Amino acid sequence: MKAAVFISGRGSNLQALIDRCHADPSVPATIGLVLSNRPQAAGLKRAQAAGIPTVVIDHRGFPDRESFDAALDAAVRRAGCDFICLAGFMRILTEDFVRRWRDRMINIHPSLLPAFTGLNCHARAIEAGVRFSGCTVHFCRPELDTGPIVAQAAVPVLPDDDEDSLAARILEAEHEIYPMAVRLIAQGRVRVVKERVVVTDGVFPVEDLVSPVP
Ligand code: GRF
Which residues are catalytic? Predict the structure, then answer.
């Protein structure tokens, strides 16, 4: 599997994918392209340090979402990638693009989906008083932060948490489950059946999870 990773900023999940998929010869997945819509995204430097090709496609240079997404699609194909990992990519993709990459595009979201889709999910989790939040890797469907769930990890929400402390605790779990999900998919062990993910040929390597939710 040759993945394109889409980012907009820091790129810590990208770094986890570089370290634990791309640079690990036992994982049959490489990163063939890192694409950012923001020229200043710090993650671009992480990709360059790992010798991975990068491209900036600035959404501000396009008249509409369709033409922007067409440029994304062309860049991914030009790089010879057959899979897309969204990793903090802060643009909403068109239905057409999402359909085109159906079951070949995953995203990581910092909540236990289907709870708290969209932005500010940590603040909303604290506000709701949930005892656990976490993160989810899922295949993408046209509606934001929806689609068959590949992996989740739960983390506690502590009484003194603010958005930042909760986000930091969840981010650690993200760095565990995103590479794990990519590894399972690259190994051909993941199937989407009736809009649910089935993992075949063995068991989840749960020892890799921080706090697994089966
Ligand atoms: C992560 O919390 C991810 O779940 C969300 O955006 C953030 C990106 O962080 N979609 P990073 O750029 O990977 O550090």
Answer: 109
Q: Which fold has domain 2-206?
A: Rossmann fold (3.40.50)
Q: What are the Cα distances from residue 102, in Å, to 72, 199, 213?
A: 15, 18, 25
pLDDT in tens, 155-186: 999 999 999 999 999 999 999 999 999 999 99
103-158 pLDDT, tens digit each = 999 999 999 999 999 999 999 999 999 999 999 999 999 999 999 999 999 999 99
Annotated domain spans of the chain: 2-206
Which atom of ligand 1 is nearest to 109's Cα? 4
Nearest residue (CA) to ligand 1, atom 8: 88
